[in-house]
Every structure is written in structure tokens, then in C-alpha cells.
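[Solved] Which block belongs to which protein?

Original post:
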Amino acid sequence: MSPAEPRRIHRRIHLNAFDMTCAGHQAPGLWRHPEDQSHRYRDLRYWTDLAQLLERGGFTSLFIADVLGLYDVYRGGPEPALRDGIQVPVGEPTLAVPAMAAVTEHLGFGVTVSLTYEKPYAFARRFATLDHYTNGRIAWNVVTSYLESAARNLGLEHQVPHDERYEVAEEFMEVVYQLWEGSWDDDAVNDRGFAWAEIALPGTNNLFVVSVHLYSGGTATDRDSEAVTIKSHIQTEFPPGAWVVVAGDFNHDGHVDFVVANGYTSDLWIYFGCDSSKSAGCTVSSRPKAAVCTAGHC
């Protein structure tokens, strides 16, 4: 490619469908259209048919919204929502997920669950089970609820104040992470390390995915050693220009695990739990899990 030629960047668009276990989701009144099928939300076949349709259409995921109360502010009561079927009645959003997973292979499922009205252990067990049944294709839309009517439905006189809900949410997340990822000692698991796979993409560059699982009790020196090992493997095994994604259980603070590197140079570094970036081209959060790097800057 000559210097005068524009650089072509191949990007993939991920399509996500948005639905809810009710007849009137984001388009109130559309259920009256003769071709609308949302009235079938109570039929499990509606959800399995939808999942198969989305997978045939190349969709990445289905996101399912949820609320635990009625919209009762407009005109001073729930009558308008009840009359027009505005997100009422609404079913439980997780129950159809295993059935949809059973008839698909690649479609992911994001489900809304309000932690304000959940107990960490019961929730962690339910979603761990969904994770097994879907072969890892389940995601959680973390919310704290915003409807006063939801609080009354769940036995409270009033909605928990906003800041208090988020304080509870932070503690809830720490507990479920511990239940999911830290319920046994490190020496009980003997497969720590990393593995990788190559995924063919349209165009000239393929995607290399590196899955990392580090010791939670490891020191900064241990993490640096792991980073050097992974760096060496990437430089020797992956072709120049490849897209590289590193993700997994870095056993550090925060809620996100990811590293994205566009290609690599001899200076490519991957950091685990670093206090500051070793390269101006890498950005590290104040509670880092990993660095996010681009080609030529790491």
C-alpha cells in the first residue's frame, strides 16, 4: 500500500435485539397491529422462535428488559398503563433463557435483574446455573430499580434512596463476585495460566483471543512475570498485524476484565494490576484490571 492510499479499517457491527416479557414494550399500542406477535410473550415458543430468528439474522445478542412495578405517576394512577398495556402484565425475564439457549449456538442473552430486591447467594446461584445452561452466553444488566410501585410490590413503604441503593449495589457486586470467583482456595485449582485460540475474520487480519486466569494471591512481581510470558508468546506465535484480545479472571479490583491490542510491536506490554502505565499509549483505570493498548503505542 503506497503512502497516498487511504488505510482501510474493517469493523464489525454487533446487532442486539431489545425485548421484554410483555405485549407493550417500547412501542405502546403496536400489539394491535395484525402482524404483531408480542401478544405471544406468554408462549415459550415465541421466545424460542425469536431466538432462532435472531441467530439466523446474525444478531449477537438479545437484551431483555424488566420492571417490578406499574407505571402509576401519569394521571395519578396505573389506569393508563393498564388500559394501554404499557409494560404490563410482565413476566419473569430469566425463565425463557435456557430454552432459547437450547435452540441456538451463538446468540447471547442479557437479562435485567434488580439487585435491590435480591439476596446475593440466591442470585449468584441462579445466574451460575444460567451460565452453565447457556454455555457461557448469559449476561446481567445490573440495575437498582427506579419505580416507587416496585418498592411497594416488594413489601417496602417507599423506594430506597438513590445513593443508598448504589452503596448497596457496590457491596452486592463484591459479594457475588466472591461467590462466583473466590469460593475456593487457589491451590484447589491446578489449571491457572492462559490459553489462546485463533478466530478467522473477514479481511486480512484474524483475531487471536487469549484467556487468562491468574492467582488471586499473586504479587505484583507474579503478575509482571505472567505478563512477560504472555507477551513472549504473542510475539512469537501471533502474526504481525493480528488483532489480539486478552480477557479473563485477572483477580483484581473493579468490575471489568479486558485488554484489546491492535497488532503488536517489540515493545508490546500487557499489565496486570499495574499502578501506572509504562507506556503513553496505554490507558489504565484507577482500579485497573488490565491495560487497553493500540498498535505501535504499547
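(Second protein starts here: sequence line, then its C-alpha cells.)
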Amino acid sequence: MADNGTEKRWYYKCGDCFATVCLDSQPIQPTCAVCGGIMRLMGEVRGTHDWTRTEKVCVCNEACVDASGPDCSCACGGINHGIGMKGYVEVDMESGKIVVTPPDHTNVEKHRQIAAEYRAARDTAKARLEAGLAAKYGDLFEQFKTGNWVDDKGAWWQMTLAYKAYRDAINTKVQKLRLAKLAKIGA
């Protein structure tokens, strides 16, 4: 049980299409049913509301019930937070793959389009990055790519920084910014 007297719930978001779901359980590395991407744990629903209202108002609205993240700051203190986003977990007994399905009102086509745009940009950026590093560093890049020792520390640092920029781009949580960063990789 959570501190607010409710069953615990956790938010997950797909790293590719950004589909969000709230679950009553914590599956290990679940897969998105919308696009096949990996769902990432955002956090546990937690009430951060520590003051009292004296007027009579509805405890929650759809901003709380259909919230896209785990932090609740409304009067319910997390009791109703995310219940409109509840999805379900399926486990393929043969492969052991865990698939998380978002709630029915999730715009599946929109999320599939987001995932397709992201994956195309990611793959193009990685190809540009590797082609550029291979052209500039030749055999040193092959050593770097396979994890072998690179004697030229300046070249090693430049390749490391180039891959760091790529990783930062793919881990960006806003689609427009993520695509812009990926477009700059190796360009």
C-alpha cells in the first residue's frame, strides 16, 4: 500500500513512441504494445499535496485522473491519480516477453507515427555518425567500435564525445527536440 492508503501504481512511458501507461505492478523491462519499444519506468504515483482546502470542490479532474506522469499535486493526494491511464500487462509464456498495453483511449496511430519518425531519424543519425568517424579515423574507429584499445587519446576523446551526443539525442524526452538533435548528428 502507498502512503495515501491506495494500492501502489507505477507510470511507464515508451522510449520510442512516448505512449504512457499506469500499472498496478512493476514488470521488468516491459515492451510497448503500440510500437514494440521498451517501456521505461517513470516512477510511482505519489501525493505531493501537503496543504488542506476548506472550500467544497471536486477532489479530482481529468488532469489528475488522466495524468501522463506520476506526480500528484491535487487534493486527492494520489488516490485517484492516473486511474484513467491504467493499462494491462501480458506475458508471452513461450518467449517470456512482457508486453504493456496502454489504455483504450491512447491514440495508437499517433504513437506509432512518433515511433516510426524517431526510429528512422535514429538509424540515419547513427549511420551518418559511423560513416563520418570511419572516414576521419579509419582503423582507429574500428578499434574504438569493437572496444579495443585506441592509442591516440585525442581521437578516442573525439569519438567518445560524438557517441555521447548521439546517446543524449536518443534519450531526449520530447519528440521535436529529439528529432532536431538527431538531425545534427554527423551532419
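Accepted answer:
You had them paired correctly. Confirming on the second one: Residues 49-58 have pLDDT under 50 and may be disordered.
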